C-alpha cells in the first residue's frame, strides 16, 4: 500500500471534517478522465526557456476525436500576482483590447499571437520587473469550430472555457541565465524491449504487451560528464490510450479508465559511468478488442520542459 | 433583632410558634417572608417584623453568594412558664444557627420535586451490647409528614424537655452527599420521639451538622426519628434506637436534588456592563445533546453564533470572521478553545465556574477584537474531601482528581488529564468501513492549586493542550499544535468592591506540512502577560471599574514552499520553480488601560460609560495606539419584568501578524482595523419560568485588511503590496432567545419532573467589500438564518434525555465554472464564477442524548449515549469538482454519529 503521498493529500480534508466524513456521491469512474470529452494533452515550447532576442516555437497535442479543430494563440506577460488563469482576463477587465501582437502598444501586456496550428515568439525586451527571469504565458484556445477566435472571443476574454472552447496555457521561462533549460527528448517507444519503428505497430489481441520509452540522455539537464557522486534526475511520463475512447494508464500496470497516468522516471549517472541510465517502470497493456489504437506519451522534466510522442497500433 | 413579645399575648399568657418561609438574598437580606403556620395575628406580626430585620450570611455555591429559600421557626415563650427567657435565648440561638447556615443553591420549585434514595451506614453500634431494631425509610420530596407539623405545632419548645441528667446515649456521625465524597455541613437535624412503628412524636431536639458534615447528639435512650434537612437536598428520614450508654456512630447519605441541568443553563441577562452577555452556568450545561458533555462546545448553541462547517469549532460571532473573536481564560488570551476538528474543548468543563459569551458591544475590559469575546472562568477545586472521576467515551478518556491540599489546613488542588484514542479506534475499524491512513491525536491537562491568603484567594493554574496528526505507517506528523500556559491570580471581594490581579506566561507552537513537505508553515510565540481589574463602589449610585492588561510576545514565524523533485530540493535561486523560505522573528509589546463607570442616576436607569486605550508595538512598522469609547444604557421599564437596553461602542483590532511582513505576503504599513458596534433590545420576564430576550444589532467595519492588486517600489523594484486597509464591512440582524429556565410548566409525560429548554434564533446579513468603489458582497461566513432548539427533561431514578435541533443557512460559496489546462503541471486550474454567488443547501440536524445515573453511597456511575444527526441528514459541506471542473459532487458532513461513554465519580 502506498502511504506517504496519498496520506499527505488527506491533510487538507482533515482540517475540514471529522475523519469518518465521506463524499456524498462519488464521481463515476469515467469522470476521472471524461473519456468522451476533448482535452489538451500537452503544449510544448521549443525551447522552454529563452533569453532576450531568442525565439521559441509552440506546438500542441490535442485529443478531439472526429472533428477538425482550430486554434488561437495568445501571449500575456503577467503582472506579479497573475497566472495563466487570470492574465488575459485581467488585461481585458482593465480595458485592454486583444489585437495582433504586431500592433500592440507599450502599455499592453496581452495580445493575439496567431491562429495557426503552431506559434512562435521572439522577445527582445528586458526581463520584466527587473529580475533575472520571468514567466511569460502563452495561452492556447482550441475549438471544434472553424474559427477559434470568433467562436471563443468571449471565452477568451473572460477566461472561462466552454464545450466549444478549451483553454490551456504554457509558461515560457524568459531569463538572462546562460544555461537555459532544454526539453527532454523521447527517442522512441519500445515493445517488449525492442524499439518501435513502424508508423503503425501491429500487436496481438489479448496478449500482454510490455511498453517502454527510451529517453535521449543527452537532453537531460544538469548531469555533468564526470560527477563525483551519483546524480539523479526525475521526470514524469504520462500515457494516454485511445482505442475508441480515451483512457489512462494507472499505477497498477493495467490499463483502466481511471487513476493517475503519470509514472516517475529516475535517470542517474554513477561516478565514473559514461552514460546516463534512466529506469522506467514496466507498463503492461492488454488490449481488450481488435481495432486501431493510438498511444500518446507525454514527458515532463518539472522545469517546464516537455516532449511527447504519438504511436499508432493495430490490434489483431 | 429580637421580636417584641406581643403585649396582649403577654397579658393573656399566651405562647406560640410561628413557622415561616423566607428568601435570603445573596446580599444576606431577607425577602419574600411568608407565614407557613400561624400562631395568631399578633405573634405573626411580631415574628415578621423581627425576621425582616435579620441579616444573614448568604448561601454560597463554590464560594459565591447565591439567593436561597429557607424555612424558619420562631417561638414565643413566656419566661414565667419556666423557660420563657430560656426559650427566647434558645430561639435566638436557633436563629443564630439559622443565620449561619450556608445553603447550597435551591433550584426550581423544590416542593414539587420528587426524590428518593437516602441511605445510612452504621459503623459502630452500641457500647452495651444491646441491639435494637432500626428503621430506615426513604422519603420522596419535601413532603414533611403531617405528624411532624402537628406535633411541632403542639410542642413548640425544642430541647426544652431534655433533661441533661437523662442523657444516656450519643449518636454521632457524618452526613455525606450521596454519590460523592462531599460532606454536607449546616444540615438541620431534627430529632423526634418515635411513636409506634411509623408515627412521629414530639420534637425532641434540633442540631446542625458542622461545616465538615460531622455532628454529635446526646439523647436519652429510646427510639427516635431523625429528619435531616439540607438545602438543595431531598429530606432524609431515618429511625434510630438508642440503648442506655450507647455511642452510635453513623454515616448518612443525603441525596442532592440535582446537579441541575435545568435551572440556570444560560442566563440571557444584561449583567452590569454589556447589552447582551450570555453567561453559562456550570456544570448544568453538560447534558445538552450534541455537545458530548463539553460545556465550552455549548457556546455554539448561543444566539448570534453561526454554525461552523463540519462543526469544526470556529467561532463565527455576529457575522465576524473567526479571528475577530478573542477567547480568554481568566482574562488571559488562549490560542484555541477546541481541539482540532472541534471534537472537544481544551479545558476540562468540570473545572470551570462559568463562561461569559459577549457577541458584541462588550465591556471596555476587553479590547483588540472586532467580533465577540469569550471569557472562561475556573472554579476553586473542592476542599471538603478527595473527589475525582474517570470518564471514558468512544474518543477519549478524562481523569480528574481534586481535594484539600495534603498536610495543610487550607487550600485545595485539582489535576485533570485527557487523552484521545481516536487513532486506535479508527485503526481498529475495518478498511471497508473507514479507509483512512491519517489519525488525529490530542491531549490536554490542567493543574490547579487554590490557597486562601490575604483575605482573598490565590490560585495557580497550569494547563496545556496538544494536537497532532499521525500517519499510520510512516509515523510522520504533518500537523501539530500545542500550547502551555501558567496563570497566577489573586482575587478578593469585600463589600461591593472587587480586586483581581494576575500574571501569565505561555508558550504556543504550530507546524503544518502539506504535500510531502512541499509547503510548510509554522509559528512559535511565547507570551508574558499581566492583568489587573479593580471595582469600587463610590456611592449607592456610582461604581467605578478600572484596570490594565498587557503582553510581551516573543514571536517567530516561518513559511516555506519547497519544490521537490522525487524528494530532492530544488535550491536554484534563479529557478522560478525553486524553494521559497522565509522566517520572521520579533518582539511585540501591548499595554492597555480602561475605565468604566456604573452609574444609576435614577433607580431604574443604569448608564455604563467606558473608555479603553490600547498601545501596540508590533512588527517593525506597527507602533500605534487606539482609543475606544463605549456606552451602555439600561432602563427597567417594569421592575423584574421588562428591561430595555442599548449600547454603542468603538472597537479596534490589529492586523494578523503575518500580514505585517512583506515576507509573509503582507504589507508593513497596515494599521488598525475599526468597528462600530450598536445593539438595542429588551428582556422580558414572561413568567416565572420563561424569559424572552430580543436584541437588534448593527456593526460597521472599516479599514479592514483586504487583498490588493497594487504595487509599490521597494529598493528600486516594483513589488506587489498584497494587503491594504481598504476593506469595508457591515453586519446587521437580530437575535431572539426564548428560554424556559426552570421546572414550572413541564409537560406531564411519564412522570417528568424537571425540564429545561431554549429556542435561539438569529437573522442577519454580513457583507464585505474590498474598497469603497466595489459593491458589497456576502461575507464568506454569512448565514441568514440560524436556529437552535434545545429541550431536556429529567425523570426520577437518574434518567434524563434531551434533544437539540439546529437549522442554519448554508454558507455562500464561489462556484468554479470551468478549468484551464496548465500544460506545465498537467493539471487544471479552476475558474471562479461570480464571487460568493451561490449558497450551500440549508443545514438541519437533530441530536439526541440520554443519561442514566446510578447513585451509590460514596460514588456514582453515569452511562450516556449521545447521538448526533439522528435522522442521518446528508449535510453538504463543500462542493467538489472533478479533475477538469466539468462535473461536481458534494462533500458531506457526518452521518449519524454515536458517542457513548461511562463516567464513574466519587
What would you say this structure looks like, in words?
The complex is a heterodimer of chains A (316) and B (906). Chain A has 316 residues and is mainly beta. Chain A folds into two domains: 32-175, Immunoglobulins (Immunoglobulin-like, Sandwich), CATH 2.60.40.10; 186-315, Immunoglobulin-like (Sandwich). Helix content of chain A is 9%, strand content 41%. Chain A has four helices and 20 strands. Chain A has helices at residues 4-8, 11-14, 87-93, 148-158, and strands at 39-46, 49-50, 55-63, 70-76, 110-114, 119-122, 133-143, 165-175, 186-191, 194-195, 200-203, 209-215, 231-242, 246-249, 255-256, 262-269, 277-279, 283-285, 291-300, 306-315. In chain A, β13 and β14 form a beta hairpin. Mean pLDDT of chain A is 78; it is low at 1-33 and 250-261. Chain B has 906 residues and is mainly beta. Chain B folds into four domains: 7-85, Fusion Protein Consisting Of Minor Coat Protein, Glycine Rich Linker, Tola, And A His Tag, Chain: A, Domain 2 (2-Layer Sandwich), CATH 3.30.1150.10; 110-254, Immunoglobulins (Immunoglobulin-like); 266-376, Ferric Hydroxamate Uptake Protein, Chain A, domain 1, CATH 2.170.130; 377-905, TonB-dependent receptor, beta-barrel domain (Maltoporin, Chain A). Chain B contains five helices and 55 strands. Chain B has a 22-stranded antiparallel beta barrel. Chain B is globular and about 105 Å long. Mean pLDDT of chain B is 80; it is low at 80-118, 123-165, 259-272 and 573-577. β8 of chain A pairs parallel with β48 of chain B, so a sheet runs across the interface.
Amino acid at each position: 500500500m502506498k502511504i506517504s503521498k496519498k496520506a499527505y493529500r488527506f491533510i487538507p480534508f482533515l482540517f475540514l471534517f471529522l475523519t469518518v466524513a465521506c463524499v456524498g456521491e462519488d464521481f463515476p469512474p469515467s469522470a476521472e478522465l471524461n473519456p468522451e470529452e476533448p482535452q489538451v494533452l500537452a503544449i510544448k515550447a521549443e525551447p522552454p526557456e529563452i533569453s532576450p532576442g531568442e525565439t521559441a516555437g509552440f506546438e500542441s497535442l490535442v485529443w478531439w476525436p472526429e472533428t477538425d479543430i482550430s486554434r488561437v494563440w495568445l501571449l500575456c506577460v503577467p503582472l506579479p500576482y497573475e497566472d495563466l488563469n487570470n492574465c488575459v482576463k485581467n488585461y481585458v477587465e482593465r480595458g485592454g483590447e486583444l489585437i495582433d501582437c504586431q500592433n500592440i502598444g507599450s502599455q499592453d501586456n496581452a495580445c493575439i499571437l496567431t491562429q495557426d496550428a503552431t506559434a512562435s515568439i521572439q522577445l527582445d525586451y528586458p526581463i520584466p520587473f527587473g529580475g533575472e527571469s520571468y514567466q511569460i504565458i502563452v495561452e492556447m484556445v482550441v475549438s471544434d469550430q472553424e474559427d477559434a477566435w470568433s467562436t471563443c472571443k468571449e471565452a477568451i476574454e473572460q477566461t472561462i472555457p466552454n464545450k466549444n472552447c478549451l483553454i490551456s496555457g504554457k509558461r515560457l521561462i524568459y531569463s538572462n541565465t546562460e544555461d537555459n533549460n532544454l526539453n527532454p527528448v523521447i527517442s522512441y517507444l519500445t515493445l517488449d524491449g525492442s524499439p518501435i519503428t513502424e508508423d503503425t505497430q501491429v500487436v496481438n489481441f489479448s496478449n500482454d504487451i510490455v511498453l517502454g520509452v527510451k529517453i535521449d540522455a543527452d537532453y537531460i539537464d544538469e548531469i555533468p560528464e564526470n560527477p563525483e557522486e551519483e546524480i539523479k534526475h526525475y521526470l514524469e511520463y504520462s500515457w494516454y490510450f485511445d482505442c475508441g475512447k480515451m483512457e489512462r494508464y494507472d499505477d497498477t500496470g493495467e490499463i483502466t479508465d481511471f487513476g493517475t497516468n503519470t509514472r516517475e522516471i529516475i535517470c542517474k549517472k554513477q561516478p565514473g559511468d559514461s552514460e546516463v541510465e534512466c529506469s522506467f517502470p514496466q507498463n503492461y497493456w492488454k488490449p481488450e478488442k481488435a481495432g486501431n489504437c493510438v498511444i500518446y506519451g507525454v514527458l515532463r522534466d518539472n522545469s517546464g520542459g516537455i516532449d511527447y510522442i504519438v504511436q499508432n497500433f493495430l490490434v489483431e | 433583632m429580637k421580636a417584641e413579645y406581643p403585649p396582649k399575648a403577654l397579658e393573656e399568657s399566651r405562647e406560640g410558634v410561628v413557622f415561616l418561609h423566607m428568601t435570603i438574598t445573596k446580599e444576606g437580606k431577607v425577602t419574600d417572608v411568608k407565614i407557613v403556620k400561624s400562631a395568631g395575628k399578633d405573634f405573626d406580626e411580631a415574628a415578621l417584623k423581627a425576621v425582616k430585620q435579620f441579616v444573614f450570611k448568604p448561601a454560597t455555591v463554590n464560594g459565591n453568594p447565591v439567593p436561597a429559600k429557607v424555612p424558619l421557626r420562631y417561638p414565643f415563650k413566656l419566661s414565667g412558664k419556666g423557660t420563657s427567657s430560656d426559650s427566647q435565648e434558645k430561639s435566638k440561638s436557633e436563629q443564630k444557627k439559622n443565620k449561619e447556615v450556608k445553603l447550597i443553591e435551591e433550584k426550581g420549585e423544590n416542593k414539587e420535586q420528587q426524590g428518593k434514595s437516602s441511605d445510612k451506614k452504621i459503623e459502630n453500634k452500641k457500647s452495651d451490647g444491646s441491639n435494637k431494631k432500626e428503621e430506615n425509610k426513604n422519603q420522596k420530596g419535601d413532603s414533611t409528614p403531617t405528624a411532624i407539623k402537628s406535633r411541632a405545632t403542639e410542642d413548640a419548645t425544642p430541647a426544652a424537655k431534655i433533661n441533661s441528667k437523662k442523657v444516656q446515649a450519643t449518636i454521632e456521625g457524618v452526613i455525606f452527599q450521596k454519590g460523592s465524597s462531599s460532606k454536607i455541613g449546616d444540615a438541620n437535624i431534627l430529632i423526634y420521639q418515635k411513636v409506634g412503628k411509623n408515627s412521629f412524636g414530639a420534637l425532641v431536639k434540633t442540631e446542625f451538622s458542622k461545616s465538615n458534615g460531622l455532628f454529635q447528639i446526646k439523647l436519652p435512650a429510646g427510639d427516635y426519628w431523625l429528619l435531616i434537612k439540607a438545602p438543595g437536598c431531598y429530606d432524609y428520614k431515618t429511625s434510630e434506637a438508642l440503648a442506655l450508654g450507647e455511642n452510635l456512630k453513623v454515616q448518612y447519605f443525603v441525596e442532592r436534588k440535582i446537579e441541575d441541568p435545568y435551572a440556570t443553563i444560560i442566563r440571557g441577562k444584561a449583567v452590569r456592563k454589556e447589552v447582551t452577555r450570555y453567561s453559562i452556568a456550570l456544570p448544568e450545561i453538560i447534558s445538552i445533546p450534541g455537545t458530548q458533555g463539553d460545556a465550552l462546545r455549548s457556546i455554539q448553541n448561543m444566539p448570534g453564533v453561526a454554525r461552523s462547517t463540519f462543526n469544526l469549532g470556529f467561532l463565527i460571532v455576529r457575522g465576524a470572521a473567526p479571528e475577530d473573536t478573542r477567547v480568554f481564560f481568566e482574562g488571559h488570551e488562549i490560542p484555541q478553545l477546541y481541539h482540532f476538528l472541534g471534537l472537544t474543548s481544551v479545558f476540562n468543563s468540570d473545572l470551570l465556574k462559568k463562561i461569559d459569551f459577549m457577541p458584541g458591544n462588550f465591556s471596555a475590559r476587553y479590547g483588540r477584537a472586532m467580533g465577540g469575546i469569550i471569557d472562561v472562568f475556573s472554579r476553586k477545586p473542592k476542599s471538603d474531601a478527595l473527589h475525582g472521576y474517570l470518564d471514558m467515551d468512544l474518543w477519549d478518556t478524562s481523569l480528574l482528581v481534586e481535594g484539600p491540599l495534603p498536610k495543610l489546613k487550607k487550600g485545595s488542588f485539582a489535576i485533570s488529564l485527557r487523552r484521545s484514542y481516536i487513532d486506535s479506534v479508527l485503526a481498529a475499524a475495518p478498511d471497508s468501513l473507514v479507509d483512512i491512513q491519517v489519525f488525529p491525536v490530542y491531549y490536554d491537562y490542567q493543574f490547579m492549586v487554590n490557597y486562601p491568603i490575604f483575605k482573598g484567594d490565590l490560585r495557580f493554574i497550569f494547563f496545556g493542550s496538544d494536537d497532532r496528526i499521525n500517519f499510520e505507517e510512516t509515523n510522520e506528523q504533518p500537523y501539530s499544535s500545542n500550547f502551555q500556559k501558567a496563570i497566577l491570580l489573586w482575587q478578593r471581594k469585600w463589600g461591593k468592591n472587587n480586586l483581581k490581579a494576575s500574571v501569565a506566561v505561555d508558550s504556543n507552537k504550530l507546524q503544518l506540512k502539506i504535500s510531502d513537505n512541499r509547503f510548510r508553515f509554522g509559528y512559535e510565540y511565547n507570551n508574558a502577560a499581566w492583568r489587573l481589574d479593580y471595582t469600587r463602589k463610590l456611592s449607592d449610585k456610582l461604581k467605578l471599574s478600572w484596570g490594565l492588561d498587557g503582553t510581551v510576545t516573543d514571536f517567530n514565524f516561518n513559511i516555506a514552499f519547497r519544490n521537490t523533485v522525487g524528494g530532492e530540493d530544488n535550491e536554484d535561486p534563479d529557478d522560478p520553480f525553486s524553494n521559497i523560505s522565509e522566517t520572521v522573528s520579533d518582539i511585540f509589546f501591548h499595554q492597555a488601560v480602561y475605565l468604566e463607570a456604573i452609574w444609576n442616576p435614577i433607580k431604574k436607569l443604569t448608564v455604563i460609560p467606558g473608555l479603553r486605550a490600547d498601545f501596540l508595538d508590533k512588527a517593525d512598522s506597527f507602533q500605534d495606539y487606539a482609543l475606544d469609547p463605549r456606552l451602555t444604557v439600561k432602563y427597567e421599564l417594569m421592575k423584574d419584568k421588562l428591561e430595555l437596553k442599548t449600547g454603542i461602542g468603538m472597537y479596534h483590532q490589529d492586523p494578523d501578524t503575518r500580514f505585517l511582513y512583506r515576507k509573509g505576503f503582507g504589507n508593513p504599513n497596515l494599521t488598525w482595523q475599526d468597528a462600530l458596534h450598536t445593539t438595542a433590545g429588551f428582556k422580558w420576564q414572561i413568567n416565572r419560568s420563561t424569559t424572552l430576550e430580543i436584541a437588534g444589532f448593527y456593526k460597521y467595519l472599516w479599514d479592514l485588511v483586504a487583498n490588493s492588486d497594487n504595487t509599490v517600489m521597494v529598493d528600486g523594484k516594483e513589488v506587489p503590496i498584497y494587503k491594504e486597509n481598504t476593506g469595508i464591512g457591515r453586519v446587521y440582524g437580530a437575535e431572539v432567545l426564548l428560554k424556559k429556565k426552570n421546572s414550572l410548566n413541564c409537560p406531564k409525560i411519564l412522570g417528568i419532573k424537571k425540564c429545561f429548554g431554549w429556542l435561539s434564533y438569529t437573522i442577519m446579513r454580513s457583507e464585505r467589500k474590498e474598497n469603497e468603489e466595489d459593491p458589497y458582497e456576502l461575507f464568506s461566513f454569512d448565514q441568514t438564518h440560524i436556529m437552535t432548539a434545545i429541550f431536556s427533561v429529567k425523570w426520577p431514578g437518574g434518567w434524563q434525555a434531551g434533544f437539540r435541533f439546529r437549522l442554519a443557512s448554508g454558507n455562500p460559496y464561489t462556484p468554479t465554472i470551468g478549468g484551464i489546462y496548465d500544460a506545465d503541471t498537467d493539471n487544471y486550474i479552476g475558474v471562479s464564477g461570480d464571487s460568493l454567488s451561490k449558497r450551500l443547501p440549508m443545514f438541519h440536524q437533530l441530536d439526541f442524548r440520554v443519561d442514566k445515573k446510578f447513585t451509590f453511597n460514596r460514588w456514582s456511575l453515569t452511562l450516556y449515549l449521545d447521538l448526533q444527526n439522528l435522522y442521518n441528514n446528508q449535510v453538504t459541506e463543500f462542493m467538489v469538482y472533478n479533475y477538469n471542473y466539468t462535473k461536481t459532487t458534494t462533500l458531506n458532513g457526518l452521518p449519524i454519529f454515536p458517542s457513548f461513554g461511562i463516567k464513574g465519580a466519587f
